[in-house]
Write a structure and sequence with these properties.
The protein has one domain: Undecaprenyl pyrophosphate synthetase, CATH 3.40.1180.10. Helices cover 32% and strands 19% of the residues. It has 7 helices and 7 strands. The chain is globular and about 45 Å long.
Length: 218
């Protein structure tokens, strides 16, 4: 009953819906999502979580209007600036060859330590599941690959298996979130929109997880 997930995935959905609800332009929802990200990171450190991975933006998200695209690109850059003041080992994972990838984040595509580096923080930026799996799909399949060896072939190879995924915004789907690492993840859906984050939502997810019997298929 005291178990804490080693690795938590975060899908921070609902930024645009929150902005509309507040009478703001949709792009305003992305900057409103920054304080919740910092609050959640600090809660993860406090509770002994070893790794946390969150969506910045996906390759599909880049189809949105330019004002929204510019806003979530900037929010990702600002998030890393915020993380510099925390005890974190930060890694940005995504398609760096695309012009929509923020060049300011290129130095962080190698894991970078801030402070004591007490928690791994992975941010998926210009990420797509097809991009992630492309090296794997080019490899001859011998029918003997184990989970660890498969992960080493991914674009997200430095991200470990996920125990618990928390998704805000009320929608129960993964949206392409790390399909290999999520294979045995338990998913907890929170109806609140991401900018309306509250610590009790995080703790409700942890309490739910603690009651589960984790078998990993065994």
């Amino acid at each position: 009953m005291n178990k804490v997930p080693k690795h938590i995935g975060i899908i921070p959905d609902g930024n645009r819906r929150w902005a509309v609800k507040e009478g703001l332009p949709k792009q305003a929802g992305y900057v409103a999502g920054l304080p919740p990200g910092l609050a959640l990171l600090r809660l993860c450190i406090k509770e002994g979580v070893k790794e946390v991975t969150g969506f910045g933006f996906t390759k599909d998200n880049t189809k949105r209007p330019a004002d929204q695209r510019n806003a979530f690109q900037k929010a990702c850059v600002d998030a890393v600036e915020i993380f510099k003041g925390e005890d974190a080992r930060v890694l940005i994972v995504g398609d760096t060859e695309s012009p929509v990838f923020p060049k300011e984040l290129l130095p962080y595509t190698t894991r970078t330590i801030f402070g004591k580096g007490s928690i791994k923080v992975n941010v998926l930026v210009n990420y797509g599941w097809q991009w992630d799996l492309q090296a794997l799909t080019r490899s001859p399949h011998n029918g003997k690959k184990t989970m660890p060896s498969v992960i080493k072939m991914l674009g997200s190879s430095d991200i470990s298996r996920i125990d618990l995924i928390m998704r805000w915004g009320g929608r129960a789907r993964l949206s392409g979130f790390l399909p290999v690492q999520s294979v045995y993840a338990d998913v907890y859906v929170i109806d609140a929109l991401w900018p309306d984050f509250k610590p009790e939502q995080f703790y409700a997810a942890l309490d739910w997880y603690k009651k589960l019997e984790i078998t990993l298929g065994g």
